[in-house]
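Comment thread on ticket #2218

A.B. wrote:
> Attaching the input chain for the structure job we discussed in standup.
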Amino acid sequence: MTVSDKSDLSNPLISSLIDQLQEIQSGNLWLGVNFDKKLKLLNEEDFFYKANEMHSVAQLLSHLTAWRKDVIIKITTGKGRITDCDPSNWANNETLKKLGWKNIIAEYKSTLSTVIDLLRERSDTFLNDHYFDIDFKGSYPYSFALYGLLHHDIYHLGQIGMLITMIKKKEKSAL
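C.D. wrote:
> Ran it. Output below, let me know if you need it in another format.
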C-alpha cells in the first residue's frame, strides 16, 4: 500500500508515482530531507546565491519548473515543446530576481500540483501510452517522462543540499 491516504488501489502505479512526487516535495523520506525542508533554510539572498560557476537555487527551481511544464504539455498534447537549448531551461539569475523568490517557489509548487492533478485523472495504462519527445526525437512511453521527472527532482534536491552547505559555510566564515 502506498503512503498517501488518497491512494487508488485500482491504479497502484499512478498512485505510487503521485506519492513519490509528493514525498520528495514535503514528505518524511528515508533520506531525511525534502524540498520544503531545504527551501525553509534559505532567505532571499541565499536563494539567488551562486557559488563558483554553479547554478543558484532559484535557477535550479526554475529549471525544474520548466521541465514540469514540458511534462504537463506532453500529458495534455502528446508532444513536448522544450529542449535542453530552450531559454526557459536555464534562466539567468538576474531575470529570476525580477520574478522574485516567492513567485519562483509558488510556480514550482503549482506545476507539481498540476502534474499530480493530471495523473489522478489517468489509469496505470496511461504510463504505457506514448508521446513524442522533441528533445530525444522519438516516441516514448509516459512512464519515461514521469519517472524521469521524479529522478530529475531527486538529482537537483541533492544539488540544492550541496549549495546550502556552501552557503552556510560562507555565512559562518563571514562572522
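A.B. wrote:
> Thanks. Noting for the ticket: The longest strand covers residues 130-133.
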